[in-house]
Design brief:
The chain is of the alpha/beta class. Helices cover 38% and strands 19% of the residues.
Length: 98
């Protein structure tokens, strides 16, 4: 992971794509990432997130597992077929068998 531009003096900031359908999570996460000097784009569903990931070429994707429609596992699988971008899976599941 690249440090934010504010640490390196570079004009390039790391771009994080946050894919999650819960604004109670995306709003504070986006604010935190931006305060830390990152650029953050939010997609509120799997289809939009996959499209944004393929067009915007983010440096990292933070991806919710449980979303209606195209869930995080499917987005991950489809994205991985087209991009080596690092993906951080985000989940509220609390059991290793989930």
């Amino acid at each position: 992971m690249h440090p934010p531009a504010s640490m390196t003096g570079s004009m390039d900031t790391m771009h994080i794509l946050l894919i999650d359908d819960d604004a109670r999570l995306t709003t504070p996460l986006r604010a935190s990432f931006e305060r830390a000097g990152y650029t953050c784009t939010v997609a509120n569903d799997g289809h939009t997130g996959l499209s944004k990931a393929l067009v915007e070429n983010p440096d990292v994707v933070v991806l919710d597992v449980m979303m209606p429609g195209l869930d995080g596992w499917k987005v991950c699988e489809m994205l991985r077929a087209h991009s080596p971008v690092p993906i951080i899976m985000l989940t509220a599941l609390d059991d290793s068998t989930d």
